[in-house]
Amino acid sequence: MGRKFLRLLLVVAAVSMCQARTQEPVVDRSSVTTEMRLENEGWWPTKGEPQRSLYVGNDTCAACHRAITESQETTPMYHAGVRAGQSVTVEEHGQLNFQESSFHYLLTGTPEGGATFSVSNGTESSTADATWAFGAGEVGQTYILEKDGDYLESRLSYFPTIGTLDITVGHSPQPPADTKQALGQKLDGSTLNLCFGCHTTAATSSERFEPEKATPGVQCEACHGPGAKHVTAMRAGDDDPNSTTIMNPAHLSSADSVDFCGTCHRTAADVTAGMPANMQNAGLVSLRFQPYRLEKSRCWKENGDARITCVACHDPHRPLVRELKDYDSKCLACHSLKPEAHGVKLPQTACKVATENCASCHMPKYEVPGTHAKFTDHYIRVVSAAEQTAGSPPR
Predict the structure, then answer these.
(1) Alpha-carbon torsion 75, 231, 224, 214, what sign?
(2) pLDDT of 278 over the 80 cut
(3) Potential cystine with 203: which of 105, 196, 310, 375 (Cβ 3.0-4.6 Å)?
(4) 244-271 per-position pLDDT tens digit
(5) How far is it, in rounded angstroms, from Cα 149 to Cα 128?
């Protein structure tokens, strides 16, 4: 969702890299843009260089990692992209309607197991095949349309909190000029690769975009890279834990680890380089970019702290933990109740207000405009009285 804003981030990030030779870049030194990461050698999420024959699929991974594989298949990431006709939302509703000015929209499941997206203004109409549904549907689901050889991001998305369609985040709230424009925004180039790279596995291989061959959802090889070399090595008895035949994000530095997740959730460098200084509600808008917000935290040092990386609190192989109290131990790993913990003197002290549900105060939730959903602010801080009154976080 919101690929218009992503395109803006990529363009400005590219300009920032060109300017870096002559002036100090305005980015967090611990973070690197995704575009620069993808130019480096080796695997990185959304990279489309490896040959398709090098991908082995989840079933092969499960031969040795069955428990992890089965657990990962229950996560929202695994369901981040499905064929539109197989979307639970489309299957359950059959047909969804939306009225915008004179434009009437329909998202309809077909008897053949597909889906169509159509719009009419009373005098003309346009229809496109809805081929993919991006987003697990917990916050929203956006549809990728195909028409006349082009891929479009649907103007409308499904939002579960309101149980219907509404304008996709990042699209203009102004009514479209005609039914063709009402279908959605054309996707091409790097934006198209990133969309599919973050919602499916191996949509691009050998630098060739082939969405019809993509594996739905974020599966093992979307993060760890193609597994053929690793499988060959393991079958040959080469079980060296430091082997380079597969990517193990656990070996990354703290800053690299957050950027790794930030490939799809936005690195701090991506957001800092791409967000206009005068953007309205900049703080609210950036809540969706958790790595950026996390690295604004006072806890985060220039080189990062392994205790507050994304994976320190969230296991990507397991469903998201939603009980706030379950995160308290993560907070208290630094903010101990005692002057010393683990044999180390800690300058951080425990909260004077409470010793449980830390995130409820220090990582509050805010509703992001246009999403019909509240997002946890990963900018860990003491929330000021002024911010509480305003109901809006700092940028």
Answers:
(1) negative
(2) no
(3) 196
(4) 899 999 999 999 999 999 999 999 999 9
(5) 11
